[in-house]
């Protein structure tokens, strides 16, 4: 009996040895599950591994059906190097090298074991960005690798468990007698890991650079060139921009980076599109003077140029309203104890609602910073498009209604003081057939920078549609002190406060102002009226208040 057992043991040892010798490589297929449920319509992860090299990829990539960009991960076990290869475009790929990450992985090992696909697995635990990761690996197959970079050097990883709810488990193991052709590092010029991550990130969206560190100042020397138009003594810059086709469901962001180039004050800024769909446009006013723009009157004896839509004119469509801080960058030499000033201010806002106005269009995009300083400001503007899934939804209806921000202030456009009487701002608009679920995007900020000015007073804004109140709120910001480090030139008061700390009418020095999205419900096709009412304060001497409000209508198909 003992002889028979000995022969059986020798036979099994020989079989296992033979299997290991013929197993030049292994292919493992993994499936993902979350909270105990297998994820639907998943692209299975694949691992190909040999004695020297492993490749983590996916089924779609190997079938050449993956959307760009995609990436695959190689691990060179001889040099302990992680190599990440990304296909950014059809004709562009990059290879990122990391010689340290594999060796830096730290684990806690357990005596606990379990069977996965009939192989005995050991458990190792680690933490990544505060996530607990359990790794189950086996050494019974003689090769290493895994569905991610974690634990690749421990053995063959058959399961990873993140926080007990997100699990990747081997569903199939194939012993390969030859090393597959995919187990070969692509002949591509390598870059450092930081550059690799940056290039991969940027390949995932479309970035449209509009302005790059352009000066926005007040000077008679400001001149246009072939690409950038300058108006109002240089306080307005405009450029024609061509947008690609943008799928419904995509995310669109506008971002601005701003620094003082000599101006110490907090200033109103705006990023806008100039609609060109009617006989007259704001561009005509920029080129020919503010008096060429259509006039709005409400009975207060003043004429307000280019602020409301008419049958022959569409006002500026505001993409972002922002406010410069007090002298960031240029005045950073004004030192205070324990204050490290910011080098610039970065503003970013979601403008995805405006997809119908931008998709496959060539439009004029402009930026304004009100100032009377020869140095002024320097600013950059980018628009990024992050593709979403096209849900076959037909384009929304976008109708610019009003914009009282006097973008041409430095060329004579009057301040928005029309709210000094009961009528405020009132206009008519027309709703076409076939739309529903209307909304109003409404942006408002109060101005008048003295003690009793509306900048520092809480004033209720009320919106009326066809004479009925549909929305009312008091725009107010109480968090302005959060941005103190962007305001080196802010005035300091005897009570220990700085001007940039003070609460304001819906804005702070160094921030954007978010629009309010107001539900209007159903609007019957045909003409309607909208009225904006604000109890604006009366002038005191040479000081007066004003309210910059902009709004556009949105209707769904």
From TrEMBL:
SUPFAM superfamilies: PHM/PNGase F (SSF49742). The keyword Oxidoreductase does not apply. InterPro entries: Cu2_ascorb_mOase-like_C (IPR014784), GLPGLI (IPR005901), PHM/PNGase_F_dom_sf (IPR008977), PngaseF_C (IPR015197), PngaseF_N (IPR015196), PngaseF_N_sf (IPR043022). Residues 207-385 form the Peptide-N-glycosidase F N-terminal domain. Residues 1-19 form the signal peptide. One of its GO terms (molecular function) is oxidoreductase activity, acting on paired donors, with incorporation or reduction of molecular oxygen, reduced ascorbate as one donor, and incorporation of one atom of oxygen. This is Peptide-N-glycosidase.
């Amino acid at each position: 009996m003992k002889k028979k057992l000995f022969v059986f043991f020798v036979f099994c040892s020989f079989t296992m040895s033979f299997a290991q010798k013929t197993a030049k490589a292994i292919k493992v297929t993994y499936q993902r599950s979350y909270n105990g449920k297998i994820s639907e319509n998943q692209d299975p992860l694949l691992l190909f591994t040999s004695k020297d090299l492993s490749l983590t990829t996916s089924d779609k990539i190997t079938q050449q059906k993956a959307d760009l960009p995609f990436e695959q991960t190689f691990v060179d076990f001889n040099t302990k190097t992680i190599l990440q290869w990304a296909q950014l475009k059809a004709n562009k790929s990059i290879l990122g090298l990391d010689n340290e990450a594999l060796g830096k992985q730290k684990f806690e090992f357990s005596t606990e074991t379990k069977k996965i696909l009939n192989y005995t697995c050991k458990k190792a635990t680690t933490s990544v960005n505060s996530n607990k990761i359990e790794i189950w690996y086996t050494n019974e197959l003689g090769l290493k690798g895994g569905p991610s970079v974690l634990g690749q050097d421990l053995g063959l990883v058959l399961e990873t468990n993140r926080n007990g709810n997100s699990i990747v488990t081997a569903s199939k193991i194939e012993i390969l007698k030859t090393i597959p052709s995919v187990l070969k590092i692509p002949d591509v010029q390598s870059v450092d890991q930081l550059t690799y991550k940056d290039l991969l990130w940027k390949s995932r969206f479309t970035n449209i650079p509009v302005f790059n560190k352009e000066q926005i100042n007040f000077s008679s020397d400001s001149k246009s060139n072939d690409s950038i138009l300058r108006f109002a003594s240089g306080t307005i810059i405009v450029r024609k921009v061509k947008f690609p086709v943008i799928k419904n469901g995509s995310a669109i962001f506008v971002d601005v980076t701003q620094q003082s180039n000599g101006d110490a004050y907090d200033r109103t800024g705006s990023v806008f599109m100039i609609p060109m769909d009617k006989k007259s446009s704001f561009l005509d006013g920029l080129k020919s003077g503010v008096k060429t723009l259509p006039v709005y009157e409400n009975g207060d004896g003043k004429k307000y140029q280019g602020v409301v839509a008419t049958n022959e004119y569409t006002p500026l469509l505001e993409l972002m309203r922002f406010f410069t801080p007090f002298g960031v960058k240029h005045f950073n030499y004004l030192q205070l104890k324990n204050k490290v000033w910011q080098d610039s201010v970065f503003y970013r806002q979601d403008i995805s609602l405006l997809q119908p106005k931008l998709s496959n269009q060539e439009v004029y995009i402009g930026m304004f910073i009100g100032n009377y300083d020869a140095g002024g400001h320097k600013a950059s503007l980018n628009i990024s498009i992050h593709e979403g899934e096209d849900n076959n939804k037909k384009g929304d209806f976008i109708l610019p209604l009003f914009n009282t921000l006097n973008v041409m202030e430095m060329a004579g456009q009057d301040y928005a003081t029309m709210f000094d009487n009961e009528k405020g701002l009132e206009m008519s608009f027309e709703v076409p057939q076939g739309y529903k679920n209307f909304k109003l995007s409404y942006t408002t900020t109060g101005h008048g920078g003295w003690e009793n000015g509306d900048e520092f007073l809480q004033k209720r804004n009320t919106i009326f549609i066809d004479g009925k109140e549909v929305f009312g709120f008091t725009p107010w910001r109480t968090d302005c002190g959060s941005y103190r480090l962007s305001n080196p030139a802010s005035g300091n008061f005897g009570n220990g406060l700085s001007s940039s700390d003070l609460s304001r009418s819906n804005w702070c020095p160094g921030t954007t102002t978010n629009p309010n999205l107001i539900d209007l419900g159903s609007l019957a096709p045909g003409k309607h009226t909208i009225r904006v009412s604000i109890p604006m304060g009366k002038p005191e001497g040479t000081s007066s208040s004003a309210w910059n409000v902009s709004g556009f209508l949105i209707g769904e198909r």
